[in-house]
Structures are given as C-alpha cells and as structure tokens.
C-alpha cells in the first residue's frame, strides 16, 4: 500500500537503508573538490583523499602513483560497500541490488568482445573490466565468433540471457554490430528493471521510474547524436530506443528522423525538463551536453534521498559514487598532465 | 432471566449480545489494553531501533541521544500496563441474579471500552513515535542540529498515547457494579 511502507519497510530494509545513508554522508563535497583541484601532483591528491573515506584504500599505495591506481582503489571501495549490502539483503532488495550490476556486466561483455576483435590479450582486457560486472566464464567470451555463439557458449548461464532474445543473429561481430548489440542489451535491461520496479510498487517505483526514464531518454539522445552520419537506418535507430520514458512514443518518432544536432535540440526543447538542459548550451555546441546530462542526473539522484523507506536510495548511492569516481579520474588526469585550467570543464559537484 | 424479557428485543442477535456475561467484555477489554499497547510499543521500537543501529555505524555519537526515541515507545507499553492494572481492580463479583442487570452490563461495557481506547491509542502512538524516531536517527547522523527539533515532533506524537490513557481512566471510573 503506497504511503504505509513506513510500517513494514524496516523489518528487512531498515538497517541497510541506514548504512547506505551513512555512506552517502561520506561522499565528497564541493569543499573537498576545491582542495583536490588545487593539488600540484598525484601525491597531494592521495594526501587529501586520505582524510576522506578513501583513506584506508589508498594509504598502502607506493609512490609514484598513477591515475589508474587511484581510480582502481576508489572503485574497490564502491565494490566493497556494494557487496557488504548485497550479502545482508533479503528479497526483493537483493534482486534490486543485483539489477544495479547488470549494466556493468553488459559493458564488460562489450569490452571483451571489442578487444578480442582488435586482437588484444584476454588477460589485459579482464583487468580493465569493471569489478561489479564480473561473472564466471567471462573469459570464454574471447572465443566466440558471432552473437549466436556468444549466447550459446557463455551468456545463456548469466543473468543477461533473457536480454538476448532480440539480438540473436548469425552475423559476424564487427564494430557497428557490437555497438548495436550493446544498445539492444541495455534497452532490454532498462525495460526489465523498469518492470521490476513497477512490480515492487510504492515510493520505490515512483522514484525509480523517474530515474530510469531519465536514463532511457538520455540514451535515446546519445544514440541519435552518435548515429548521425553513420550507416544506421532510421528503423534500426528507432529499434534501439526504450519503450518508456518522457520521450516515448512521440519524441522517439521525431528523434528517429533527426539528421543533425540542431534538429535534436528542436525535438528536445518541446519537453520542459530537457528544455532547461538544452538552453544552457548555445547553438552548435555539443561537448557540454554530456556534462549537462550528468548534472541533471546528479540533481535527481540527490533528490532520491529526500524520502525514506524505499530502495531507490541504493541505486542513487551507487550512481553518485560512480560519478564521484569519474570526477576523481578527471581531476587526477588534469593534475598529472598539468592542465589544471580544464579541471572545471568536467567535474560535477554534488553537495 | 426476567430482566431480558422486560427489555423485549425483537432480534435474536440483540438478545444474544446482552446474554454475554459482562465479565467476558471486561476481561477482553483488559487483555486488549495491555496486548495491543505492547504491540504498538514493540512495533515502534523495532522501526526506530533498526535505523538507529545502522546509522550509528558511520556516526557513533548519535546512539546515546537517540535512545530517547526508544524510551518514548517504551512509555507506551507502560501506559498499557498501568491501565490494565487499574481496570482489573475495577472488577467486582455480583450475585448471579444481578449479573444481567443494566447496571452490571454498563460496568462491563465501560471496562471493555476503556481497554479498547487505551489499546488502540497506544498502538498508533507507538507506531508514530517509532517512525519519527527512525527519521530522527538518520537526520541526526547527517546533521546534529536537527535532533532537538525532531524531538519536539516526537513529543507531540507521544501525547497521543497520553490522551488515550486519560480518557480510558475516566471511562473506567464509572464502572460501578450493582451493590449486593
């Protein structure tokens, strides 16, 4: 019953919700980012991070430090938090938490298949995979030649199996087909997650619907912009859009026929939430679009914490941590390459 | 027997209800007053306790202050015990010839009603204080200036149980059984 979740949520979810809110209090604030932006080298960054929750993960790293090490250790903290929560969760929260990692699994699958196509070593690729998206037999992906084999050999035993029904073809894997496969899988995953949240009901479904709808719309815009000028036909492009969200179905009709960025802007400005995003950029400028979308996403994720007794706080926390790791990566790269003037181009402040 | 015939009920349901012993109603009232109050207190305590334990991992300073929420919930159970004890002192024996007199029935119903009032008022009071206590613990962990302000809300919430106790005790004061 919507509105009365407060009566029974705490039986199974009270402890974990309190833990995730404690983790949220440990996210870096604007003051922390300002300190980090003024660092001269990576050792300074490590020193500043030792005062935050990342301290215990970075303290044993020997100098000289690399940016990849910093990012790896921070991701390790995210994975530890996630596993701690997952092992204590009961249904349906454990299924909800599992859904959060399927996106990373899809990214890892695509990474390995692409890398194999370009003849990279499997071990090297495995090290680059995101730890949250690892599953057994992931290394076997390097053996597959086309999608049917991919499915039959490896993916049928993973949670991604039901998402493959739409992209089982016998075509060989090349760059374009891999991108289409990634987007088809992600579309199926988002729709599945959306249905699952609707089934849970209550505040979880309300907040998650908003967050997932934004994700679906953002992916639709990115697919449109990235496929302008490629061989992707309009019908194929429309097949990659998810069947929920603010843009469904009329926005998708219009986006499918867009041929340049100004037309995309024209379509998006009909929807008030996206009109606010697009109005921040002047005509012809598309580099700022990514950052504008990230800022809007962070704003919505922070709002998820305003309500108690629902599962969306877990999703919001994971996404905010990932954004923080992206910020740290950008800051470390700028500091390491002595380009501190460009730091503010891409850091998204949260609190 | 003669008392029932004089009342002249047309339906058998009405006749059946007044044939239930007033002691049955009193006993059920006393049971509900303590049982449902304790249900409310326990429900409130687990709601606030689980959040408090989780939040105290990252912010250990909140534990001692936020035990007040648990104490407010516990007070609700104590109200139930007190009223149950008061109610059971109101039970007196009457001779069986007077057991179904109007005055006896009235005493039985008064104790029953008092028990229900106290039980359900404490149930919702315990729930209210528990949910606010949970939010209080989580907000205190983020920002310690919020604790006192949320405590004021909890105090208003716990007044609800007190209202129930007051009315219940007044109700039971008129539970006078007929004298021999």
From TrEMBL, chain A:
Keyword Transport set for record: yes
Gene for this chain: LOC104710711
Keyword entries, A-Z: Hydrogen ion transport, Ion transport, Transport
Pfam families: vATP-synt_AC39
The name this protein goes by in its record: V-type proton ATPase subunit
Assembly and oligomerization: V-ATPase is a heteromultimeric enzyme made up of two complexes: the ATP-hydrolytic V1 complex and the proton translocation V0 complex.
Role: Subunit of the V0 complex of vacuolar(H+)-ATPase (V-ATPase), a multisubunit enzyme composed of a peripheral complex (V1) that hydrolyzes ATP and a membrane integral complex (V0) that translocates protons. V-ATPase is responsible for acidifying and maintaining the pH of intracellular compartments and in some cell types, is targeted to the plasma membrane, where it is responsible for acidifying the extracellular environment.
Family of this protein: Belongs to the V-ATPase V0D/AC39 subunit family.
UniProtKB/TrEMBL annotation, chain B:
Compartments, record wording: Membrane
Subunit structure: V-ATPase is a heteromultimeric enzyme composed of a peripheral catalytic V1 complex attached to an integral membrane V0 proton pore complex.
Name of the protein this chain belongs to: V-type proton ATPase subunit c''1
UniProt topology in membrane: Multi-pass membrane protein
Family: Belongs to the V-ATPase proteolipid subunit family.
Domain of life assignment: Eukaryota
Described purpose of this protein according to its UniProt entry: Proton-conducting pore forming subunit of the membrane integral V0 complex of vacuolar ATPase. V-ATPase is responsible for acidifying a variety of intracellular compartments in eukaryotic cells.
Record-annotated V-ATPase proteolipid subunit C-like domain positions: 28-87, 112-171
Residue intervals passing through the bilayer: 20-46, 67-87, 107-134, 146-171
InterPro entries found in the cross-reference section: ATPase_proteolipid_c-like_dom, ATPase_proteolipid_csu, F/V-ATP_Csub_sf
Gene3D superfamilies recorded: lithium bound rotor ring of v- atpase (1.20.120.610)
One Pfam family of this chain: ATP-synt_C
PANTHER family: V-TYPE PROTON ATPASE PROTEOLIPID SUBUNIT (PTHR10263)
Keywords of the record: Ion transport, Membrane, Transmembrane, Transmembrane helix, Transport
Organism lineage: Eukaryota, Viridiplantae, Streptophyta, Embryophyta, Tracheophyta
């Amino acid at each position: 019953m919507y509105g009365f979740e407060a009566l029974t949520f705490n039986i199974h979810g009270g402890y974990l919700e309190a833990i995730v809110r404690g983790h949220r209090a440990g996210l870096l604030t604007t003051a922390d980012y300002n300190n980090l932006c003024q660092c001269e080298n990576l050792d300074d960054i490590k020193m500043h991070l030792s005062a935050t929750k990342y301290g215990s993960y970075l303290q044993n790293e020997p100098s000289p430090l690399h940016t990849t090490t910093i990012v790896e250790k921070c991701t390790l903290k995210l994975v530890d938090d996630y596993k701690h929560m997952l092992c204590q969760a009961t249904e349906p929260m454990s299924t909800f938490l599992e859904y959060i990692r399927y996106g990373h699994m899809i990214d890892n699958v695509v990474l390995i298949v692409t890398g194999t196509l370009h003849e990279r070593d499997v071990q090297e690729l495995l090290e680059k995979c995101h730890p949250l998206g690892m599953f057994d037999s992931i290394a076997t992906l390097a053996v597959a030649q086309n999608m049917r084999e991919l499915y039959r050999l490896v993916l049928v035993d993973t949670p991604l199996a039901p998402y493959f029904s739409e992209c089982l073809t016998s075509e060989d894997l090349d760059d374009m087909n891999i991108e289409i496969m990634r987007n088809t899988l992600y579309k199926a995953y988002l729709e599945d997650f959306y249905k699952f949240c609707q089934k849970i009901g209550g505040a979880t479904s309300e907040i998650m619907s908003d967050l997932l709808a934004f994700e679906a719309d953002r992916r639709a815009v990115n697919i449109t912009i990235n496929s302008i000028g490629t061989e992707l036909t309009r019908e194929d492009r429309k097949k990659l859009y998810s069947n929920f969200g603010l843009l469904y179905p009329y926005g998708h009709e219009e986006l499918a026929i867009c041929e340049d960025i100004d037309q995309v802007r024209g379509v998006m400005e009909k929807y008030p939430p996206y009109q606010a995003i697009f109005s921040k950029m002047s005509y012809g400028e598309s580099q700022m679009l990514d950052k504008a979308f990230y800022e809007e996403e962070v704003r919505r994720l922070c709002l998820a914490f305003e309500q108690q007794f629902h599962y969306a706080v877990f999703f919001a926390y994971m996404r905010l941590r990932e954004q923080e790791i992206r910020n740290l990566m950008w800051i470390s790269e700028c500091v390491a390459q002595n380009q501190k003037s460009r730091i503010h181009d891409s850091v998204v402040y949260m609190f | 027997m003669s008392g029932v015939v004089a009342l002249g009920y047309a339906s058998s349901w009405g006749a059946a209800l007044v044939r239930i012993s007033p002691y049955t109603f009193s006993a059920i009232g006393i049971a509900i007053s303590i049982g449902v109050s304790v249900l409310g207190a326990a429900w409130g305590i687990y709601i606030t306790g689980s959040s408090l334990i989780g939040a105290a991992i990252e912010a250990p300073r909140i534990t001692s202050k936020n035990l007040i929420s648990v104490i407010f919930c516990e007070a609700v159970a104590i109200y139930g015990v007190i009223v149950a004890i008061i109610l059971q002192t109101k039970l007196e024996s009457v001779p069986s010839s007077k057991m179904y007199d109007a005055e006896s029935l009235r005493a039985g119903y008064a104790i029953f009603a008092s028990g229900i009032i106290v039980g359900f008022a404490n149930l919702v009071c315990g729930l209210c204080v528990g949910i606010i206590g949970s939010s209080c613990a989580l907000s205190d962990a983020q920002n310690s200036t919020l604790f006192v302000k949320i405590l004021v809300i909890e105090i208003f919430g716990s007044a609800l149980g007190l209202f129930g106790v007051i009315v219940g005790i007044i109700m039971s004061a008129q539970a006078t059984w007929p004298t021999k």
